[in-house]
Hints:
Oligomer: single chain
Amino acid sequence: MTISPLSRAAAAEFAPEVTYLNTSSWGLLPRRTIAAVKALADENAVGRRIGAGSFDAVEAARAGFARLAGVRPDRVATGSSVTVHVGLIAASLPAGAEVLAPEGEFTSVVSPFALRGDLRMRYVPLAELADAVRPTTALVAFSSVQSADGRVADLSAVRAAAAAHGARTLLDATQSAGWFPLDAGAYDYTVTGGFKFLLCPRGTSFLTVTEEVQETLPKLFAGWVAAGAPWTGNYGPLEHLAPGARGFDEPPAFLSYHGAEHSLALLGEIGTDALYAHATSLAARLRAGLVERGYEVVPGESAIVSVPGLEGRRPELAEAGIAVSAPAGNLRISCHLYNTEADVDRVLEVLGHREPRPSA
């Protein structure tokens, strides 16, 4: 019997002690990633590592993300959090600019704009986002996959509407990159946290910027790393930023990026098409099983399955050794490369059939 690269990777790199279906909160670290982090920590402990880490690892992580995102590495800035990237974009807008976002969008995507106090925020249901773009819209800020319930945005419709009205686009791919195909070059900006479906340690994030809008971003975080070549911009004011998106790099958390290099390489070896097919097929099996048992689920083809109003069952699932999450009143179950049909069936077994509602 032929074993797929995905199945081989899952067996070689992961050994969860629970039925882990909570990648929407954080992804499991591959063995190769853990080994890289431990090796650097050991070197730091005994003084063998000059500079506390290697920029080669940062560049490898940048290149690994760029391959998954479909852009050149010079279009990718590395950082520590989505919030910082979005804050930079928020600072680039003129006072009075209109920002359009879905209702219930993740706070890191909207708060840097909303808390400025001098921008016009407008929120609409996710399904109406494309139709809500208008000539006065400066930016559409949204996630490809919603954190609260896993709904997938109509990406092509939003892009087309934004282009028709001259609005820029900011896409948060944190809940999708790693299982959902990402064409970062189709958006003015993308932001992605690395610690979920990209399976990176916390402290890794990626910003992509088109060449057209690079000059519009303010130089707010112009630290020594923004000079480009390592260790060349440590003293005095920088004369200029590194070319491309590298000029928006943050000083790296070396332990995190030494691990990220290997997590992203693993996902690149498997390929997004295989990751998408695997995760969505498991989610479809789970969704169908829940419906058969009388539960109302959020429809769609996402790798994230949500059951509204069922958040109270999370402790019971945890007691049974099943890790899920419960944001915004939903029971949220997310599938990734290390999950199997047995994991899905275990959830269905524990949840059982929904008890009929009492008649009025």
